[in-house]
Task: structure prediction
Amino acid sequence: MSLEIKNEAPNESTGNFIRTFIDEDLLNGRYPGTVTRFPPEPNGYLHIGHAKSICLNFGLAVIYNGACNLRFDDTNPVREDVEYIDSIKKDVSWLGFTWTGSVRYASDYFEQIYTCTKKLIQKGLAYVDDLSQEEVRNYRGTLTKPGQNSPWRNRTAEENLFLFRRMRAGEFPDGSRSLRAKIDMTSPNINLRDPTLYRIRKAIHHRTGDEWPIYPMYDYTHCISDAIEGITHSICTLEFEDHRSLYDWVLEALDWPPPRPRQIEFARLNLEYTIMSKRKLLQLVKDKYVEGWDDPRLPTIAAFRRRGFTPESIRLFCDRIGIAKRDSWIEYYWLEKAIRDDLNSKAPRVMAVLNPLKAVIENWPKDQTKEFQAPYFPDDPNRTSIRPLIFEREIYIEAEDFMLDPPKKFYRLGPGREVHLRWGFYIHCHEAVRNEDGTISKLRCTYSEEPRGFGAGPGGQPAIIHWVPAKNSIPARVRLYDRLFKVPRPKGNLDKEINPNSLREYSEARLEPALRKAGPGERWQFERLGYFITDEKLHTSQNPTFNRIVTLKDKR
Result:
């Protein structure tokens, strides 16, 4: 049964069990210090689940004054790309962490791993198998049925070493042979039923070229690389719990001197309205459900960065949800709350109108303007920075702030009603002018410096609405992003689960003059609308483009 976090803050105390293990190991003298690692496979962009692992591993190095290595698990050249390596390094740095020493690669240790493998063969603990991959699967058995020994399992150490060297020399075609550990085909742990250690794969590697026609498997590479680097605590997600026995078996079989690394598992992050499967994320990109790996609707770190999430907010979110021992689902609310809590004190307040409706102030002179002073941080009296607001005869208000025949609980503008312009005058609507098709083209209004009792609120109080001047406002494109999936726990059925309204674009938005010089990556709060950022790819001074980072209120 999974633990669901609903309607209350996640319990931060769940993050203590890994530190308890480390404290015990240090107290008992098992290790002289603490060395962790973050070992991504460079076959895709990192997502929020990886961010949790990054914060955990690098965070432990900070807490214990230890070290944390960045090591790429580059053992499958068919799926890997330098683009992913560059993006991962950028993501780790952006989150605020620095790895110890230079970047490491599993391929750095290919020769050492090969030497270790020959030792296993000589000890009679590994053999060359001629079964195909499909036959290996059939021989493996099931959770309730033991596996069967391969007919090639009893080859002599000399024959296995001879064949393995020929594999290394590239004499056999892909898939024709593999090297397997000789453990126990009847083990209740399927991972110990003679797992594959090497497969033949004649592919060009991004670092070693065509030097190696054989590549070690992740489970095998992982533990040896950890041991070579002196990792003390190899922290993995929960799906590797059943692999721990193989991790320990390999190091024991190789007679690796102590202290050997200790594998500890924690529950992966399951975030509602997202998917974490690299395969499904790749499908979203390739099938053009999204605009690329950095599409702000994706849960990748690159997408979060472009959307405007801050590294501080991601770290805050990871800290709040803690580290659990069993799987749980986290409400998307907690991610959005961390974003808001971080941006609230950072983002200056300004005004923008997404769907402009013109209001003509008929008792204001045509060529006259008035400048109001408005604070960037109205809730903080210690921050006194201000920006000018220009009032003129024609202004824009939000179209949804006006109704021809407003219902009782609609407190904004309508015929015969008045509203208070934020930081400005009061305006009273006299008439809505229609186009030929019946839509409203503009409003005819008058202004006053004091309310006149025509507001729709209690006691005739006017509602406060945002606005921008027509002539002095800035035309812009504004993109509103929503959750990519319309179901809380998507199973990956993209055609049925994708939210068709995950992106809404307003191409004729208008912004107040203070945003004229907004630069790339600047964050703002558009009053009543949410937090926004200039789009790092699309924004220019000639074509201002803003993405909504998060709304002001949760839609929980």
